[in-house]
Design a protein that fits this description.
about 170 residues, alpha/beta, Rossmann fold, nucleotide-binding
């Protein structure tokens, strides 16, 4: 294992399955799992959408970076992140240095279908869901390219995706 890369991190756009896959991978590998968004919600006592409404995206991104740093200071984690964590160069560098990074990707049409159930909880999806997803997908896709591995989750079973990631992690360590 590369000396510093003691964590396994899942990144990707919202709706690609990071949380669901992360839970499954953590069970397969018997790794402690943390989700940056869930950690922030627990810290604040309010949802990400409520925090966005009160303080704005810039403050959210600052809090997100601080939480990422805190998580990376732990011994060994499976870490799932919010989709926009890669927007800051600092976060990409931290992840690249300290984690084996897996980019979960999916076709925009599948992301849209997955997000229909939770769009009211996601402040960046206000308005035309399809247009917003396509715009965010195009704007962010290059930010995910630093990942060590890309896994397409389109039309795949969670168990298959988790097995693929677990296999890659075992080869890494």
């Amino acid at each position: 294992m590369q000396h510093n890369k003691r964590h396994l991190a899942l990144i990707g756009m919202m709706g690609t399955g990071k949380t669901t896959v992360g839970r499954a991978v953590s069970e397969l590998l018997d790794m402690t799992w943390r989700d940056t968004d869930q950690e922030l919600v627990a810290k604040w006592g309010c949802s990400v959408a409520e925090f966005f409404a009160r303080y704005g995206e810039e403050r959210f991104r600052e809090e997100e970076t601080a939480m990422l740093r805190a998580c990376l200071e732990e011994q060994r984690l499976l870490l799932t992140t919010g989709g926009g964590i890669v927007l800051r160069e600092q976060n990409r560098q931290l992840l690249s240095q300290w984690a084996y990074v897996v980019h979960l990707d999916a076709e925009p049409h599948e992301i849209i279908e997955r997000l229909r159930r939770t769009e009211e909880e996601r402040p960046l999806l206000r308005g035309d869901l399809s247009a917003r997803v396509h715009a965010i997908y195009q704007a962010r896709r290059d930010f995910y390219r630093f990942a060590d591995l890309r896994v397409d989750t389109t039309g795949r079973a969670i168990s298959d995706i988790a097995e693929e990631i677990a296999r890659a992690w075992r080869e890494h360590v």
